Amino acid sequence: MTEVDDGYDAYYAERLWQLLPAVYRTADTDSFVTPGPLRELLNRIGAQVAVVRRSIDRLWADQSIETCDDWVIPYIGDLVGTNLVAYLNARAQRLDVAKTIHYRRRKGTLGVLEEIALDVTGWTAVICEAFRRLARTRHSLDPALDPALDPALGTALDPALGTAWRPGAIPAGGFADLRSSHGAVLAGTAFDESFHTADVRAGRGALGHFGIAKLLVFLWRLTSFPVVTGTPVAVAGHRGQYVFDPTGRQVPLFLPSAPDLGDLPGSQLMPREWQVPGPLTTSLDAAITGRGTSPRLPYPAAVPARYGLGGDWQLTAVWPEIGRFAATPGAMASPAQPLTVSYQYGFSSTIGAGPYDRGLLPDPPITVATEQVVSGGMDLARALAQAGPSGTVTLGDSSAPDSATYPALAAAGSSAAPIVSLLVRAGPGMRPVLRPSAGSPPWVFTGGGEARLVLDGLTVSGCDIVLRGSFDIVRITACTVDPGTAGPGSPPLAVAVDGTSLAPCRIFVEADPDAPAAERGAIRRLCVDHSILGPIRTRFGGSVETLTITDSIVQGLAATTSTDLTAADVFDPSLLATSLLSADPLSVALAGRLPKTVWQDLRAYRARPLAGQRPGLPRTVLAGLNALVTGEADPALNRARLEESFPVAVSTAALAVADAAVELTRVTVLGRIFAHRLSASDSILADLATVDDTQAGCVRFSAYASGSVLPSPYQSAIMPAGAPIFTSDSYGQPGYAQLLETADAAVVGGATGASISTGAETGSEVGAFSADLNPVKERGLLAKYAEYMPLGLLPVIVHVT
Length: 801
Fold this sequence. Notes:
Layout: H1 8-19, H2 22-28, H3 37-61, H4 73-80, H5 90-98, H6 100-105, H7 110-121, E1 124-129, H8 181-185, E2 214-220, E3 223-230, E4 233-234, E5 241-243, H9 282-289, E6 307-310, E7 313-319, E8 324-329, E9 340-347, E10 371-374, H10 380-387, E11 390-395, E12 405-406, E13 419-426, E14 433-434, E15 443-456, E16 459-460, E17 465-477, E18 480-481, E19 507-510, E20 522-529, E21 532-533, E22 536-538, E23 543-555, H11 573-580, H12 585-591, H13 596-607, H14 610-613, H15 619-630, H16 635-645, H17 647-650, E24 655-656, E25 661-670, E26 673-675, E27 677-681, E28 684-685, E29 689-691, E30 699-700, E31 703-705, E32 713-714, E33 717-719, E34 749-750, H18 774-788, E35 794-799
Parallel strand pairs: 2-35, 10-11, 11-13, 12-14, 13-15, 14-16, 15-17, 16-18, 17-19, 17-20, 19-22, 20-23, 21-23, 22-24, 23-25, 24-26, 25-27, 25-28, 26-29, 27-30, 28-31, 30-32, 31-33
Antiparallel strand pairs: 1-2, 3-9, 4-5, 5-8, 6-9, 7-8, 33-34
Helix pairs in contact: 1-3, 4-5, 5-7, 7-18, 11-13
């Protein structure tokens, strides 16, 4: 619990001082400002007395489970005989102990099982007794089929809402009504109205659901995040159509989470299908609004809206599965009131930019100097200019929260006034999006000396970020730097609805040519936490001493498919020129196969100042390298050899940082890694990783691709590079980087019993969501169900999301 300033330290120090005879107090010091050694000694004793006093006060608070310290929870649990689940967080354990008597009074009921699931895991759950869903022959004890005689068919009042609704109106054990479109969509879900034949297989995933002894536990593991007053993107070629997602992706909409009713009437009832944080379907949306063939659902006003428009626009159509809608301006719409949207999207955790409380994350950033606030997509460049070398720029006004898109960016810092200490952050609970127009220059931050830069809660899409110059620390926390989306064709990238390529946004570390040689391009610490990023690379003499990434996802995508080397394929032209001109045996061998004019152009290019090297290598050099690649029997193999020889300069990667020590903790890396040193813990290295110094560092409790060159693997799993272990590897989809239930089938080697889904040091899954302890929560849930479940039933966990 958070401690308050009780003033005990000063109180007891002063009391002890007053107890001393005046002769000693007078002799202690002649100054009225600086305390003497005796006073300093009593101050320290008073601080320890204050600690004892606080401990005595805590004895009263520790007698209640609501106010006790975390370490007291197991002891109170012993008093009531609670079987606490190991590794669960303090919240879940505190609820478990506090509700023990409540659970026991309702032991064996479905309502308490759903409540236990919410308390232990934090997930919404719906429990179904599978034997009630088995098809059977009707008998005389079943109710009559005439709706006029049987109020349960279509006219029964909902006990929680006082309204009548039952879409399928299927009699017990009977046939499904195929005329009910929404009732058909519910088949196989937690709200299924159909009846099924028995399935004697062991319950796992989508198999073995229906049987006499099976208790189906449907879990919604994804979280539904609300976006307020976001900026939609118009669909090219379809007038009046837009997508909700501000990056132009077609992202499915989610239902809002039902409000917590506490102990109010209706809180113990099974959640309805519109009260679970799952994907919104067209049939459900039509049933809620009354546009479907089924009776309208009793959607209560107390539940938050699924989506909405601002700026006096009228909604005419919605396609929730792809997050698309059609709208027309109302009579009061004006340029001063642009179209805004409010909606819900789904994701696995509080990673990346999002409308959640970032203050709950470890070590929240502190405001620097004066604060400049911009909102509603206003000019960000002006705010950065006003902030100067030191300051804070906040996107979003707390008095009117919004998640607007900011189309204009500007460089922060310059050669005349580089950054000293700058914080650029999103407002509390907001998700502003920085999305400049196609072809815009990168967002440049120039530092000097011991500069400090913090980016907090931002979404950047459509441009690169350049960290130029010298920094003591650069921190990227709770941010999303668009990793791009793969697609068919050439280039192999998907396209947003407005025609913009969904290319990865890269973070480049480079030297500042205008700075002194000692301060041109060195970042002492680059720290990333709770973020989703595209590639991190060094170029033009930039370097990072230590790159630390925790609880994050980093992805690297190829931007081309051709075997020809283009300017876009050379990520660090300066490094490639230096490598080709070196005395390395490979470079010497290439020297004999390239024309002399190429080497002359290379030397001339390398002799230029750093600013003159930025446009890239001369065309003659690229043409000479392409002649070597395409002149052999297998151009694709030759291109791969070239990338292996100069990985940081030309190879597609998620992490390509020269001379850096990389530290990964609970990270999912979707792409190759090239680093000098590497330490990884509880992480997934989904593609090949190559480390120069294999004598330093360790890869522990992780999963890595076979063929990687790594230091000292310990208790780790080996899998093929690019193994299909994720629900989706496309950013924007709800299951992005979420492990499949079959992920362990991809393990081909490693330590005995190595696992991806439970291989973390805590027994959780490895990767970016390891800290969420999802497998531990499930095991704890099953342990609690063994205590409170109806006799003779076996739980079957079904992951809905």
